[in-house]
Write a sequence for this structure.
């Protein structure tokens, strides 16, 4: 029977089919991306059969594990002992450092990749390469480069390092990216050593060699083989992968949630239209359980039919997203997407679960249809608001209003959270209570055209079919409210952050890193008149990393959160691995990082870069530095985070708005198709097809307008409250940013699809009076 119903009522399941197909494709593609976005062994260390990693620290509250660096003495001792292990051909300490090529006096290339682009020549043996020409670097100022740069042996190569600009001589070329210098230069430009790569003798097995190392290391490190060597992936790549994973997770969750919403709303509307049909089944002996199982089987078949092509489509399209993910900073350079067998199967299972969950409540409600309902002939809705809808809507309205009442007593930090929570609850309440306000709003909106035939039909049609109008308006309400609230809040917050951060900078101008440069070199900083902070990391005896800032202080200033007291001597391990006892000079309640003398921190972290110099005089031109106003610097600093937020919002809104448009179009398609007797009556009253089309299109656009107005009625007051909270927090006026472009785009897309969804059933029929007879069946 379920198959017969699908063949007879395929139009009623079209929206569910498309929603599940797109949802399964999104899940399959997202899972394929997630499966491919696993940590990988750095190409620069892929030739090391065994990697020895420095002692690891695992944060007790979760987060990324870290490895503290060895001291120079520990490195020398470990290298000597490891080189003597049977099966080891050489033990090579890996010393990556920052270097960029200067072209026309400006840094060129990828800023993130340049942070570990340089290495000592010994590290070249930890990867696979082919020597093109020339010889290895033997003294400072010599370098072996990638042959792809097109530089001949003997060419002068201007570069920028953390120390400053330099000119190196090319002594050789190889067939892989990077800058390889002599070991003395690498030691002076790199931080501490965290990994030692072992080149193995021919025939030696990595696992056998690794098994001999625990006693030798004696707690000073861990031997890694195979995929475990991915722990050596640069921290920047690890953070990038984490950001990409958050977007993938958000996409899957939002896609599944919105798909359930669309399926549930489509099935609820379909069940309401099939009430007489289901009652007839009950009248001929069908039990409530049989009715429920029939509806569940229908959607399960649709989910299976949509899920199989959707899963294959998502898995096939996922590799095409690798490039865009790298381009927007969601995956590191070199990211590739392969086929993962479990991704489409999992997506197919998710589609089945989503379909069943979406139809479950409708199936339960349908099973309670009374057999006598088969005798109903009235098209009017006797009760657009059910008791459960009244209870749920009223409860959420009270809950949202109660949260809003908490605003006056909330702190400045709490107000944005309270505003967002209250608005979200009120949006759901408005969607549930929409049938209550449909008729009054329609009367107000159509008041100017109340005496015309179209206005009269709109008013009376909304009065007898409030649920139909509300079913179309509800997804628009949710999409408009959700989009305006989130986009407006984030854009207003960006405006507030810019005002607050600019106010913290008393200087009018700064020297900041130039485009494509990750930071300022020490030479550029020393050339500028003004103050600057050097950011580094120090480690406690436990291996716990602490952020440290090099400033103009005489001694160690500790944040109060550490519980240290003035006069206490604390052993700190610096970025180069050196361990020094440092006395706490003072404790600061406002500081979040350790503050150390800048020269001390620089001496033990030659690889650190400075972010900005706050100018107290004229800017001095230097490679990798540029002058800008304090406001421009703040805006650029926030731009990276803002770009990520915009990307997240674009994905989330794209999914939600896409499904909203689908729900609107599908609801109107089903509603128009079910109104065949009504159109026959219009034809008998001498209405033309154009007049009928004008009525249904006007009703569709009116539904979209009602949804948009209700969404704005919730979102706009919340935006004003959010702005008030931001003003209280920073103590300065903040301009409210209204996302007009986003609002117009959402309403425009919904209106276009609503019009098409309502008028297409009319346009499919023939000419003249045949349209009415065809629509009437």
């Amino acid at each position: 029977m379920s198959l017969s119903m699908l063949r007879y009522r395929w139009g009623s399941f079209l929206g569910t089919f498309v929603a599940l197909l797109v949802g399964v494709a999104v899940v399959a593609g997202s899972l394929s991306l997630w499966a491919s976005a696993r940590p990988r062994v750095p190409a620069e260390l892929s030739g090391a059969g065994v990697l020895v990693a420095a002692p690891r620290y695992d944060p007790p509250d979760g987060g990324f594990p870290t490895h503290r660096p060895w001291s120079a003495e520990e490195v020398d001792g470990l290298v000597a002992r490891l080189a003597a292990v049977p099966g080891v051909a050489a033990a090579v300490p890996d010393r990556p450092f920052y270097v960029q090529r200067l072209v026309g006096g400006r840094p060129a290339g990828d800023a993130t990749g340049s942070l570990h682009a340089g290495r000592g020549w010994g590290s070249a043996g930890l990867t696979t390469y082919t020597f093109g020409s020339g010889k290895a670097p033997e003294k400072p100022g010599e370098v072996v480069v990638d042959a792809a740069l097109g530089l001949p042996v003997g060419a002068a190569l201007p570069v920028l390092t953390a120390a400053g600009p330099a000119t190196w001589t090319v002594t050789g070329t190889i067939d892989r990216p990077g800058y390889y210098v002599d070991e003395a230069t690498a030691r002076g430009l790199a931080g501490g050593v965290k990994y030692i790569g072992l080149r193995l003798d021919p025939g030696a097995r990595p696992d056998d060699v690794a098994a001999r190392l625990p006693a030798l290391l004696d707690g000073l490190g861990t031997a890694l083989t195979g995929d475990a060597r991915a722990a050596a992936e640069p921290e920047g790549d690890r953070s990038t992968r984490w950001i990409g994973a958050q977007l993938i997770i958000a996409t899957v969750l939002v896609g599944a949630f919105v798909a359930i919403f669309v399926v549930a709303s489509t099935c609820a509307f379909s069940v309401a239209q099939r009430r007489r049909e289901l009652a007839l089944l009950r009248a001929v002996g069908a039990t409530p359980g049989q009715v429920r199982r029939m509806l569940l089987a229908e959607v399960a078949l649709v989910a299976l039919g949509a899920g199989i092509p959707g899963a294959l489509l998502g898995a096939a399209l996922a590799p095409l997203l690798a490039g865009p993910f790298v381009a927007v900073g969601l995956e590191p350079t070199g990211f590739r997407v392969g086929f993962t067998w479990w991704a489409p199967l999992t997506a197919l299972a998710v589609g089945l679960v989503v379909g069943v969950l979406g139809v479950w409540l409708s199936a339960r409600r349908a099973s309670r249809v009374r057999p006598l309902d088969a005798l109903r002939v009235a098209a009017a809705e006797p009760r657009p608001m059910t008791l459960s809808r009244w209870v749920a809507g009223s409860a959420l309205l009270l809950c949202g209003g109660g949260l809003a009442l908490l605003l006056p007593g909330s702190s400045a930090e709490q107000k944005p959270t309270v505003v967002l929570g209250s608005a979200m609850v009120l949006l759901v309440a408005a969607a549930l209570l929409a049938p209550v306000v449909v008729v009054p709003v329609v009367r107000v909106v159509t008041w100017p055209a109340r005496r015309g035939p179209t206005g009269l039909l709109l008013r009376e049609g909304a009065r007898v079919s409030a649920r139909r109008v509300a079913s179309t308006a509800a997804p628009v309400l949710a999409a408009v409210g959700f989009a305006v609230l989130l986009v407006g809040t984030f854009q207003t917050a960006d405006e507030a952050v810019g005002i607050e951060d600019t106010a913290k900078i008393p200087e009018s101008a700064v020297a900041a890193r130039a485009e494509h440069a990750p930071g300022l070199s020490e030479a550029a900083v020393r050339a500028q008149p003004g103050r600057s902070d050097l950011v580094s990391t120090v480690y406690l005896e436990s291996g716990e990393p602490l952020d440290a800032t090099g400033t103009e202080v005489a001694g160690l200033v500790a944040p109060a959160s550490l519980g240290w007291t003035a006069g206490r001597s604390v052993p700190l391990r610096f970025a180069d691995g050196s361990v020094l006892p440092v006395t706490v000079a003072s404790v600061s309640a406002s500081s979040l990082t350790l503050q150390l003398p800048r020269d001390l921190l620089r001496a033990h972290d030659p690889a650190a870069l400075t972010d900005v110099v706050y100018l107290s005089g004229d800017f001095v031109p230097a490679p990798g530095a540029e002058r800008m106003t304090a406001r421009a610097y703040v805006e650029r600093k926030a731009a990276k985070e803002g770009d990520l937020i915009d990307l997240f919002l674009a994905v989330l809104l794209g999914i939600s708005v896409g499904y909203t448009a689908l729900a609107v179009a599908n609801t109107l398609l089903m509603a128009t198709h079910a109104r065949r007797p009504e159109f026959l009556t219009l034809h008998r009253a001498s209405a033309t097809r154009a007049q009928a089309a004008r009525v249904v299109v006007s009703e569709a656009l009116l539904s979209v307008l009602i949804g948009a107005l209700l969404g704005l009625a919730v979102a706009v007051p919340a935006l004003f409250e959010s702005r008030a909270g931001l003003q209280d927090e920073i103590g300065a006026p903040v301009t409210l940013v209204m996302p007009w472009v986003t609002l117009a785009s959402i309403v425009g897309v919904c209106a276009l699809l609503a019009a098409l969804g309502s008028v297409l059933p009319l346009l499919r029929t023939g000419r003249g009076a045949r349209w009415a007879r065809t629509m009437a069946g």
